[in-house]
Structures are given as structure tokens and as C-alpha cells.
Amino acid sequence: MRNGNLRDSLWYNQPGIGLSNQGTAYIEQVFRWAHRADPQALLFYNQAEGEEMNRKSDAIYTMVKDFKRRGVPIDGVGLQLHIPTLDADMPAILAGISSNIARLAALGVQVHITELDVL
């Protein structure tokens, strides 16, 4: 996903796989296959640059909400945090991260920090 839009890929462009459900059908299918392979595994969608409130995090939220509504087996979202400590907007950045985590958690999924660096 780039700027809230799915990237072109073999899976996205494959007729009948990527073009339905806002283009997320191939992601959905992967979650279903993984769940079938191991019903006990926790399944996470992991993404960089979706930690704050922005177009990308909105797209992730919309996808997860849709998946949960339709019974797609998704247990959580992994966020990769790359935080610039010298940014004058630090309070706003942290507030955005907090709001995003809260709205994802409200969908009933776990939210994990899968990467963290403070620049």
C-alpha cells in the first residue's frame, strides 16, 4: 500500500482476485489461506507509514473494518513506527498515533508495534 492506494502487483492485477472489494480481495484470500493452514495462528496485517492519521492509515482502517464485518480471519494490525524526535509537531504526531491505535483496537483487533525507531 502506498499513500492509501494498493500497489500494482501480480496478485492485485490478476483478474478475479484483486479487483473486487476495493482491490483488497487478494489480501483477504491470503488471510483465508493462512487461517486454513493454521487455525490457531494469529494473523496480522503489517504496514509501514500507517501509524499516524493519514490516507494510508485510513485505508488500513477501512480494509480491516470491512474484513471484520465480513468474517475475514484477521486478528491484528502491526504498525512500524519511525518517529522523528526533533520534529516540532511531536505532540500532534503522538496524538495521531494514539487515535489510530484506538480506532483499530475498537474494531476488535490487536495492535502491535512491529518496528520502532526514534530518529
Percentage beta strand: 15-25%
What is the H-and-E element order?
HHEHEHE
* CA-based gyration radius: 15 Å
Number of domains: 1
**Which runs of at least 5 residues are low in confidence (pLDDT < 50)?**
none
CATH class: Alpha Beta
CATH architecture term: 3-Layer(aba) Sandwich
Name the strands of the widest sheet in spatial order. Answer: 1-2-3
The 3D shape can be described as: elongated
Helix content: 40-55%
Q: Kindly identify the CATH topology.
A: Rossmann fold
- Overall pLDDT level: 85
Q: What can be said about the biggest beta sheet? A: 3 strands, parallel
User: Count of DSSP E strands?
Assistant: 3
Distance between the termini: 23 Å
Helix- and strand-based class?
A: alpha/beta
User: What is the count of DSSP helices, taking H or I runs of 4+ residues?
Assistant: 4
